[in-house]
Amino acid sequence: MTAEKVIGIDLGTTNSCVAIVEGGTPTVIPNRGGYKTTPSMVAVTEAGKRLVGHIAKRQAITNAEYTVSAAKRLIGRKWSSPQVKNAVSTSSYKIVEGPHADVRIALRDKEYSVPEISAMVLQEMKVIAEDYLGEPVSKAVVTVPAYFNDNQRQATKDAGEIAGLDVIRIINEPTAAALSYGFGRNLEQVVAVYDFGGGTFDISVLEIGAHGVFKVIATAGDTFLGGEDVDARIIDWLVQGFKTEHSIDLRQDRMALQRLKDAAEKAKCELSSVRETEVNLPFIISNGRNEALHLQRTLTREQLEELSEDLIERTVDICRQTLLDAKLEKDEIEEVVLVGGMTRMPKIQSAVAAFFERDPCKGVHPDEVVALGAGIQGAALVDDKAEMILLDVTPHALGIMTFGSYFEELIPQNTTVPTHRQKIFTTSRDNQTAVKILVMQGENENAESNELLGEFILTGLKRAPKGQVEIEVTFEINADGIVSVRAKDLETSLEQSIQVTATSGLTQDEIKSMIENAKDHMVERRGSEEFEAARQEAEKSVAEIERLFPQVEQIVASSDFGRDAIEKTKAIVGKTRDAIRKQDVAAVKEQLDGLTRTLRMFKGVVAKTQ
Amino acid sequence: MADETKQKGAPDPELDLGWDLDDDDGPTEGKSQRPTLAPPFDLASYAKEAMVPQSGGPIPPPAAGKPSRPPPRAGSLPPPPPLPNRPLLGRRPSAFPPRSAPSPNTPKAPSGPPAAAAQAIPTPSPPPAQAMTPAVGMPAVNPERPLSEPPSQRITPREMMALEAARTLTRTAESTPAEPPPPSRGNTLLALANHRAPLLTPPRVPAVTLPSSTTPEAAAKAGGANVRVVHADPVVEMQERFALGDYSGALVMAESMLEENPTHPEAREYAESCRSVLQQMYTARIGPLHRVPVVDVARDQLRWLSIDHRAGFILSLVDGVSSLEMILDVCGMPPLDALRTLYELVQQHVVSIQDD
Lengths: 610, 356
Known about the structure:
The complex is a heterodimer. Chain A is α+β, with helices and mostly antiparallel strands. Chain A contains 14 helices and 26 strands. In chain A, α3 crosses α4, α9 runs parallel beside α10 and α12 runs parallel beside α14. The longest helix of chain A is centred in the last third of the chain and has 49 residues. Chain B is built from 14 helices and 2 strands; from the N terminus they run αααααααααααβαααβ. Chain B has a two-stranded antiparallel sheet with strand order 1-2. The interface between A and B is large, with 50 and 42 residues.
């Protein structure tokens, strides 16, 4: 009996990728268009049609208000968070406050939660895998950035659940990349994963231990720095040039801007392999005299490097800071793994090589490596014989708030899980009979700047002067990342505890309802695909019959049999058209056999007379 | 190749009028040599036929003061002849909604008084008789049928009204015979099986009374039996155009009214209905939307085409992989505009559509 197939999904900010291990070999699954990555974009058209992936990307500017991109930046965040505020002011789509102080996205006449939007992308990846494998898929390993907090991880899990996937493990993206890099090589190395994707930049330092143990030593990044910024620079350059030449601002026209965006991305990609490329956009806009104008400019690699120089420098600065935080020297990094499409840019490769003083590894595919790692982990989780142990670390420090709103850290950032730590605290006032324990996550000394995970109150303390009552606080994180906090009065042994369950901001009822909606959509989609396939087949046959009809009619109309056949043909074609009009897939399918027989007969009649 | 493309892009009234349905008044000699997506057919008559009750016969005149309401779609519509064998017949809608400023090659619609305007209307030559050879099994077309003028896509609603007034006067003076009824369809399989009838939802509008001075009866007395009356009231004009199957004209009127009053209920409903019918007409002409269009012009020759930036945008979406439906989904343009543009590109041989 073969083990159940588990897919690995790299749910990216701008692109997603799905992989699976087949016969021991990790493989990326291409989508229907043959692309190995799918844009993480969701749109709703004016007609209410939902678009996901490439098709959503192609209309992202012309339908900007109803196209969601980079939903990952919002997932698991609270409405009040600065990142959300930033997104509200910069996003083309409408972001609104949800009922639980969470984030919702308004598309046409409906508001969607962020996990729901991510679920649409995950569902697309699931369909891609199912189409490829020819069987249903229900289990997945999904990757997230190493800095994601528990709520963001939980929200990603919820998204998987809504999409009909059982997310059996959430793993960090750099870990997945390192896993793929070290797969089958039994390495023991300290590696840096430089991940410059479409929307975000991350740098992580990992230790690959013996027997496939992977440990994240440090991670940092910038969630608003990616390939799209480079595209924007190219667009600026093109727009400025056109404005100088024609005094027309192309940004004012959405169709022109959509074409510019596509052309900029294409030019950027081309310049990774050629030294110059031509941006040719005929009929980009019309002038006041209703004459169509064309945009034609040549962009060289040197110009692109100049345009994106500061962006590249920013990534290097983050790398520098990360090594400082991790107290690591450059020479301790034994390998640099490049991840993300932007790392194909020669200038980036040289900047990384210059900073780390070593050539980066070119043995992995930057777009696929994370998904492949997730696929590898997925296969290992269902394979009893697999030896691989994946150690993950806490992405952020955990602690409690103390008197004066200070943050007291109990579990430092990057601590390997599972783990547990204890610390003793005292009361801050005389005759204090209760203490409030606020469990927080973050690195800031000011507790209020960190993420509140939960709170509870320990009562029944003995009345005593401040500082005399001792309370032991214990933090425990299990292998699934669930945090338990216990506070115990050491004198009375009274204790209270809390299990911090991460929340995506959705209630169970909401999740259930979203699962149902997603299922309905899936049924509708499959049904529509089935009808479309049947319709195309039927219409093709009908067209062929219609083409041959006059000829056949002329030949056979003189006999009773012939007239009968003609009548039957008319009836079949009529019924087929009727079924197509009513969109009755079963009825269309019912007619297919008759159509095939009729067509065969028609062809036979025509062939005999020739 | 370069010359050929340039020829396509050169000033050519047929191509320049591409936005307008009226430019399809029979293939010219040059046109007939070119491969086309499907033999041309008349949209207006197509729509008329689709609206005729099953018993056949001419379109009943709209009840006084009421919009012409097409019959309910399912079951009651007669199946129109199928697209590929449709004969070239029937009256064409007179104009399209204004889209952009007129090109130098486009005949300018008259804006002066009706009489003067009538003289300014260019009269196209009738298409060569051989171009009207009916398809197998289909009835012949009357080559004597008067053709409507090739109006510009850039005609404004006001110019449209003046044009129509001029046309009416001209017709009155010449006592143009009534348009022949659509020829009866042959008893073919195609006629029986086609179900591409427009899914028209008639607008629900309150009754409107025609001004006494412009009632059809009065006009008929003055100028003959087949007089088309120009109404002072744009609502009435719109309704009449709609009733006569001139959906483009009705849409022009409706959009003109909406420009002045965006909440005008009748105009909104008529505009919606007209768009719906026109959209279905274009869908019928362009064929199944699952097919994939491809660009037939070399990339370096594209700039010599005579198209506008909207067509250029649609053209940029034609990648040889995306189906017509996908292009309509992603273009972000109103479906009618997008369909019309795609159809235009096909007619201009810039794009062809791959068969299954």
